[in-house]
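Figure-free illustration: sequence to structure, shown twice.
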Amino acid sequence: MALKDKEIFVGELTTVGRKTGAPRTVELRFVYTDGKFYASSARVAGKHWCQNMLKNPAVEITAAGRRYHCNARQVTDEGLRKRILTLRDSPPLMDRVVFEIAPEN
């Protein structure tokens, strides 16, 4: 099953624990658009997967029966952040933090 542009789906994100160095997997809702994955959170504080990605951006996503090796970054471009949140929710929850997770080539 191939991912489609602007698809919203539930997949698995595996990060490296910032304290333990061990793999940590969480199920999240993603937006897939322009060849990249996007995840959002109400906050970074207290969200281990967010804190882990900020410390070590090398992550894996399992989606549509495939595993993708990726690099993550927090979205700081306000236009992109709003676009992703608008795709993700109706009505959009504009106070959320967004992470871009780009597959390695």
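We now fold a second protein in the same way, so the two outputs can be compared directly.
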Amino acid sequence: MKTTFTKYSEAKLKNNCPECYSTDGLTLSFAQKHEENKFFDRSSNEVQSTMKCSKCGTTIYPARWTEDIERVYEYNRKLAVPPKPYFKFKALTAILLIAVVLAGAVAAYLIFIMNK
């Protein structure tokens, strides 16, 4: 099963980067989990957030966040409402379901004919 995270919100922050102390490089992004295989495609309520600094190129993990960054993170998390989860069947699932129903109908018809 292929699992990906699709970005649905991004915010530029004006806080200081804990690594390089730049005030205009932090970017906070939120992504929703999507799972896909041959039979279905679905998204879940699971959300992943990442914070990166474009100036020094580092990922800022929650252990390095300052109190100000945590406040801004909570604010942006409330603003960034994830899309509703969904579950969709693919065409292969419909074809297999129709084939199973037809095979069952043929088997029932053949049993009915043989019992006459």
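Summary for the second example: The radius of gyration is 25 Å.
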